[in-house]
Design a protein that fits this description.
It is built from ten helices and ten strands. The protein has 278 residues and is α/β, with parallel strands linked by helices. The chain has a single domain, classed as Rossmann fold. Strand 1 and strand 2 form a beta hairpin. The protein is globular, with a radius of gyration of 20 Å.
């Protein structure tokens, strides 16, 4: 599979309030495959959001290189194309919503790209449908719930037809039902429409259905693998101060009590199946 994003020995430095150099990313290398659902986890200050912002040229490397669809992010003339390829959804949907009517907000991005009006109409309809928000097209965004607003922010990115969507903690400000809505939307876009997803989160449960999980700590990638491989390493994750999915935590405790279970159980259904087999 072709890599849509390639990060090579990425270093990012910034000046602290005390005017000292701080290295937020330390020679990170990573490839994201076309169509992949990649989840990056780590607590605040681990470098995960800093890395995400390099993926659509919001930040530029202090050292190393980032390529999006083969384009070097540090070359200014590539920025426009890079942002059409890799769309970004942020933590607070209110910061991304610009219009007073939902469908006008979704049309904003394609209009800026110079898309013809007839094509914009098609894209807005398709984007609303893909996030399950067609019935709210004429509403004011201020009348929507947090989860609905975030789905509108995602629709605004979809209407620009990116190959990849980068979501930087998109559920951090949402209640459980809003989180569920947004996660189902992201999964469907990835599985049904083949859009590459890079999902940055500190909620471990959101990584269970990923193709691959990366754990960041102090500007380094410290673990990488599919969800079963990563979450089976409960002791390492705990040392990093991270939670593990609740089912994995329970599995670990049951194994500690002498019950014969595989380490890599991630879902309630898997747990029930294995317990019934005992």
């Amino acid at each position: 599979m072709d890599k849509i994003i390639e990060i090579k020995d990425l270093i990012y430095e910034y000046k602290s309030d005390e005017n000292e150099n701080v290295q937020a990313l330390k020679k990170v290398s990573l490839g994201v495959r076309q169509g992949e659902f990649l989840v990056v986890i780590g607590h605040n200050g681990s470098g995960k959001s800093t890395m995400a912002k390099h993926m659509n040229a919001l930040l530029l490397p202090s050292g190393g290189k980032v390529y999006v669809n083969g384009l070097d992010t540090s070359d200014e003339k590539n920025v426009w194309s890079i942002r059409q390829t890799a769309g970004m959804v942020f933590q607070n949907p209110d910061n991304q919503i610009v219009a007073t009517i939902v469908e006008e907000d979704i049309a904003f991005g394609p209009e800026n790209l110079g898309v013809p009006p007839k094509e914009i109409r098609i894209r807005v309809d398709e984007a609303l449908q893909s996030v399950g928000m067609s019935e709210h097209r004429r509403k004011g965004p201020h009348l929507l719930s947090g989860g609905q607003k975030q789905r509108i922010a995602i629709a605004g990115i979809i209407a620009m037809r990116p190959k990849c969507i980068i979501l930087d903690e998109p559920t951090a400000m949402l209640d459980p039902s809003g989180r569920k809505e947004v996660l189902e939307t992201i999964r469907r876009l990835n599985k049904d429409e083949g859009i590459t997803v890079v999902h940055i989160t500190h909620f471990m449960d959101e990584a269970v259905n990923a193709d691959r999980v990366i754990v960041m700590e102090e500007g380094n990638m410290v673990l990488e693998g599919n969800p079963k491989e990563v979450f089976a390493q409960v002791d390492i994750l705990k040392k990093l101060g991270l939670d593990v999915p609740q089912v994995t935590e329970l599995t670990s405790k049951l194994i500690g009590d002498g019950i014969d279970l595989p380490k890599d159980i991630l879902t309630v259904d898997e747990m029930v199946m294995h317990l019934c087999q005992l």
